[in-house]
Amino acid sequence: MSVEEFPCLLPATRGRRARMRTVHVLRQGDVGDLATRIGESGAGFLRDSGFQGRAGELALVPGSNGVAAAVLGVGDRTDPFLFGGLANALPAGPWTMALPAGLTPATAVLGFCLGAYRMPAFGRKTEDAADIARLVVPPGGAAGAEVARAIRLGRDLINTPPNLMGPTELARAARRALEPLGAEVRIVKGRDLAQAYPTIAHVGAGSARAPRVVVAHWRGTQAGDDAPLLSLVGKGVCFDTGGYDIKPASSMLRMKKDMGGAALMLALAQLIMTRDLPLRLEVRLGCVENSVSGEAMRPSDVVTTRSGLTVEIGNTDAEGRLVLCDLLTEACEMSPDLLVDAATLTGAARVALGPDLPALFSTDDSVADTILQAGRACDDPLWRLPLWDGYADWLRSPVADLNNVSAKPMAGAVTAALFLRNFVKTDVRWAHIDTYAWNDNYRSGRPEGGETPALRALYASLLRILNVTDRQQQ
Predict the structure, then answer these.
(1) Which residues in the chain are classed under CATH 3.40.220.10?
(2) What is the pLDDT of residues 73-102, one digit of tens each?
(3) Does domain 3-139 have CATH number 1.10.3720.10?
(4) pTM of full prediction above 0.90
């Protein structure tokens, strides 16, 4: 990947030919050392301006010909979002960074790119690259651009209007992202889909835009037949009306993000492949639309899943677990060393944890602990919720093996995860991510719109769980 894919970045070779200014990044205790960095006059200006060096505090230093430099306080934080406001706050032109110990160039580049992100234009006028601040990529910074590229992919997919991102378009986007990196991508549709993934077909029956399933296979250049197998599964509901159990209008406004689980898994797959990890990878995405029509699924329908279990439809707005269950069954048929699924599955998880904390469920304590530790270490947190067996009976049905919703109006995220567990083999290590996939408002490095929380945590944790090495980080 070239850093030139990002308008906000400049390769170091090009930056040397331009007049560069420096962002001096300071810990709060380093404020007294300002004079050695920006000169006595600049330090005096910042003292008189009340600059404290608090985390996220940015000051522009005047010179004889406009802004001469900038100073960014980071406090004791190490997260990339510290740098998320720079692209919008710095004057146009090339910039470099002077970083303190404990902050890596990759972190700075990642944060800068996340803050520079803009939604796809769709005819809207965009900024010229000459009119924006651009960061000259330091040695070691390109790794941050690779992570930013994966996050940008996820954000772009989620932010695309639903009339332009149906099941077919999502499947094609997956193919465009994965095939150039060496994956074999198959798109399943029609009778083949109905036979292999009956619950996805049932969910998609009400829409004029027929469902698609993406199945991709890849292995790293250093991965042999005995390399660990990672399986990723994503919910790709491109728009969710709720079906006959229709959502109120206010709840439908953001339903273009209901394919956020598929976007997250696709972004993670892209990063794994870009880094050429020594593993085998399978990706399965259920691309579908949940609509209302004479062909749509009904409450009280009974559908037979790929596994043979029958499911009564207690609520047509609980379609995400139906999209996932056949994909999880197929993934387990390959006996993966680790199975991870992601979905914008339940409002209950958001009530419990809010928008920033994806809920984590796992059948393996070691897997869960590793993901949580990685999330804390890279400032990409998750929170574990239990697969509480005491609630399993809440999914009983008098006419089928399972109901797709609980008989009680409590613990909705837990019972959804318990439903999915029925389709995961007991000897497969499994992690389920219930995510929001959206920023409700702008924050540094996190513009309003689609988001891929847990991406960095999952990537860092799978290295440990599968015992594989990212040679680019060595």
Answers:
(1) 3-139
(2) 999 999 999 999 999 999 999 999 999 988
(3) no
(4) yes
